[in-house]
Amino acid sequence: MSTTITIGNKTKDRLADYKFGNLTFDDVLNMLMDRVSIEDISAEHIREHYHRLAKFKGIPKEEFKSRIKERISHGSIQTWIRCQTFKRISRQYVPIKNW
């Protein structure tokens, strides 16, 4: 079974550089994925997460509460809560315009 994926032209050109002989793009992608372990990719993402976390600057509790109250007064929090509640019931989101 095959599927279509969207990649940029530059990416396709780079991928084609790895293609030789009778190899298909599927063969090339599998060859590349076999050479790079998922753990290496995951470790990179985890490092980035901790880097962003170290730079994260929180806000005082009172300012956070103030921002929440402001959003509640504008309706954005209620919309989010309705979506979360509906999601728990039906396992899918409903577009806001349907509310």
What is this entry, summarized?
This protein has 99 residues and is an all-alpha fold.
Could you explain how this protein is built, in words?
With 99 residues, this protein is mainly α. The protein folds into 2 domains: 9-55, no CATH class; 61-98, no CATH class. Helices cover 68% and strands 0% of the residues. It has helices at 9-17, 25-35, 38-55, 61-74, 76-90. It is elongated and about 65 Å long. Mean pLDDT is 79; it is low at 90-99.
Class computed from helices, strands and strand pairing: mainly alpha
Biggest beta sheet attributes: none
Number of domains: 2
- Give the helices and strands as they follow along the chain: HHHHH
The parts where pLDDT drops under 50 for at least 5 residues are 90-99
Q: How many DSSP E strands?
A: 0
Range of strand content: under 5%
Rounded average pLDDT? 79
Helix content: 55-70%
Overview features:
99 residues, mainly alpha, 2 domains
Lay out the secondary structure:
Blueprint (H helix, E strand, L loop, with lengths): L8 H9 L7 H11 L2 H18 L5 H14 L1 H15 L9
